[in-house]
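Write out this protein's structure.
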Amino acid sequence: MVPLIYHPRFNITAFGLERLHPFDSQKYRHIHDALVARGLRRPSDFTRPSPVTQADLLKVHTPEYLRSLRRSEVLARILEVPVVRRIPTWLLDRRVLRPMRYAVGGTLLACRLALEHGVAINLGGGYHHAGSDRGGGFSAYADVPLGALILHEEGRIGRVLVVDLDVHQGDGTASVFRNWSWASILDLYEDDLFPFPKEPVDVPLPVPAGLSGIEYLDIVRDHLPGSFDAHRPDLIIYNAGSDPFEGDPLARLRLSGNDLAERDLLVVTMARERGIPVAMVLSGGYSPQSWRIHTDAIEGILTRFDPA
């Protein structure tokens, strides 16, 4: 079966303060429970990751930045919730940063299992606004660069390609990759949204507000095959944000849930047709339907790639 990585500690709860941000920080549990309810997995079928270690985080983050996460005002800016300034940092570490460290461990595990199974999905992760010395946009740790770097250092991959289809540009991932000749990014994003300025990426695909699902999927079909063939990655890390959805409050694209399920299946299928392993992470999505959109998309992938 396609490995699904999940830990109950992915879910962020902070006495209701998590509701002050539109991101559903408990959607991981909703996705897990829905996949079980649909009979696609039993609870014992999910693989639990360990949290990432400080030593591993130091491979991509500066010591100064990691120390700065002990300050409430820094976390308030990263999480975009000003009232967080009033919360003790030890509590923020337990209720917010520790869940993120588990999700980063999940991304690393998804990368490892993708090399073994062809496809692996982390139900968390995708913190693509975090750079080596900064965080932002609800992203404290650069999980995708960390997963790529560790496997590269171990000699398990030579080249990696990130396919980032979250509606916001993955500026943090791009900034970390800037000096890594072996790492490339294809990034399709709505051009008029955060972040500003945009970071240089290998294959930038900025699109205007109002783009339809048909137009969006045509762009994906037109650009993915050439990028796969040009960059010849040993691993694709797919950042599958649900925020291109037409009901997302932070974006203005017009994709339906079915469009997003088709998109995710398209990316994974194109990669597997070329024999390229895919590690998928879920990234952003701010509508109340985000968990359902991801569940439907994962169901499509499992239906295609689970053994009969």
